[in-house]
Protein: Xaa-Pro aminopeptidase
Organism: Flagellimonas olearia
Amino acid sequence: MKYFPIDRNLFIKNRKKFMAQMKPKSIAVFNSNDIYPIGADSTMPFEQARDIFYLSGADQEETILVLFPDALDKKNREILFVRETNEHIAVWEGAKLTKEQATAVSGIETVYWLTDFDKVFFDLMTEADTIYFNTNEHYRQAVETQTREDRFIQKCKQDFPAHQWAKSNTILQQIRGVKEPEEIALMQTACDITEKGFRRILGFVKPGVWEYEMEAEFLHEFVRNRSKGFAYTPIIASGANANVLHYVENNQQVKDGDMILMDLAAEYANYSSDLTRTIPANGRFTDRQKAVYSAVLRVKDQATKMLVPGTLWAEYHKEVGKIMTSELLGLGLLDKADVQNEDPKWPAYKKYFMHGTSHHIGLDTHDYGALKTPMKANMVFTVEPGIYIPKEGMGIRLEDDVVIQEKGEPFNLMRNIPIEIEEIEELMNT
Ligand SMILES: [Mn+2]
């Protein structure tokens, strides 16, 4: 791990919050992700499953967390199973967590080797009535592979058919959506690393550079600041490429007069940041670019002000749609008739702004979090309006990550990342 150790009190608090919502005599199990194969003996880099990380801080494959608040023996209330380490593994793969280190990271006193899991788990299950399975119910999930968690659930249903099943996801959606101060600090670090990358790129970009050269500059800056790299697949889209919302080829040459849309950001300690900036390739906005850019920025600023406790996500999106509609009228992209005749299910503004304005962010870039109940303090959201005009070869999106406060406007974790036209131009021309 490149990141600095995390205060284990975070994970202790997270487990407390989870266990407080479990039914009597119930047990919950959380598995690591697999290390996914590429071919021959090569694999993808390991990415820890976010839920077991959230509840334990264990950032290692083949780890299992068991929570059993009503266990008769107190030492069985929280158990971490880790892969047994030995000298051979230490030589070939590097050190894995020892039992003492696993306790230091997680705050869990009872640590067993994974090889003991079946025996210990069977014994615990004889005391339990209900088992919580950790299924993925994210609103955007579209997973076709079977995870380690899925295999565990299948086996468990076979081995313990008389137990009741419950799901962890409802609890996790709720608690992961509201961030602890330690988590906000980690996300601030991710945003600060992203800022360094962005400032670096402002001095680098000029007509003739290739999108992938910009990608390399960002990655360089991210990794040298203890990030694993991009929090999600980076989008570096010059000119008309910006109108492809998930453009990730990043293989075109930047032309004089183009705008470049960059939707990319660093991860830190498995926490995401999520930034979008759109800059002029030659360091100067044209009048038209300025007009569209300023419209997007005004929508972003007004939308941000609405992110306060009590706001409903769906209502918020409707309001943002109204603000965007008036900006598009101002830019001459819509006329009154377009708006009067619009289909309420797909309002006129969607022609130029077809995606959502905000999503939860945290351990996942599109994080867990309640969306149908009112917003609460310490939820973290992106704010990311955009205007896409294919016939003008231009797409502009601006995005910051903000924390909802008890009172007043949200706190912008990206407040130090240049966004005003004058500042961008100045930094690109010095
Ligand atoms: Mn986003």
In short: The chain is about 35% helix and 15% strand. Residues 181-428 form a domain with the Creatine Amidinohydrolase fold (CATH 3.90.230.10). Residues 274, 359, 382, 384, 399 surround manganese (II) ion (CB under 6 Å). The radius of gyration is 24 Å.
